[in-house]
Amino acid sequence: MVVKVGAIAPDFRLESDSGEAVTLRDFAGKWLIVYFYPRDNTPGCTIEAQQFSEAVAGLRRLGAGVVGVSKDSVKSHCGFRDKVGIKFPLLSDPDLTVHRAYGAWGTKTMYGKKVEGTIRSTFLISPDGTVARAWGRVKVDGHVDAVVRALRASRDEAAKPAPT
To answer: Is residue 15 domain-resident?
Structure first.
């Protein structure tokens, strides 16, 4: 089941490529982009990580952080980070608990066959901990730009005064 827009984002506590645990609460009061990707050092995942890395400075100016989540080990994440120059935390979810909580694990079609695996997904979490936007079955091309546009729009909407 994919987490719905407006729902409270599922909490998590996962080991990062820095060797420290990262939790959703670490980002309380800030915007957070949580993206799930299938595997380190694969073509689409590398492009997506590079594009999020290129966007990190702009995301920070917008008050947002980003984390990437896969089932790969911390050791694999460290190699991927160093090889590609990733500028944000990579989180390891080897038992798929967080993948499943967000709906980022399930049946998908690869090369014409149904397989179970990571469903490339992204979630924009608002400062109050609710899901502001969700993208499932993401195509890498243009995705990071779409996420940045959605973040700007969500921030603008959140900044509007409540009607009286």
So the answer is: no
45 is catalytic: yes
pTM for the complete prediction? 0.95
CB environment 73-86: b (16+ within 10 A), e (fewer): ebebbbebbeebeb
Nearest 10 degrees: CA dihedral of 126, 127, 130, 134? Answer: 20
- The larger pLDDT score, comparing residue 62 to residue 159, is at 62
Domain CATH for 46: 3.40.30.10
Choosing from 9, 45, 64, 138, the catalytic residue is 45
Q: Is the pLDDT reported for residue 163 higher than 80?
A: no
Q: How many domains does the chain have?
A: 1
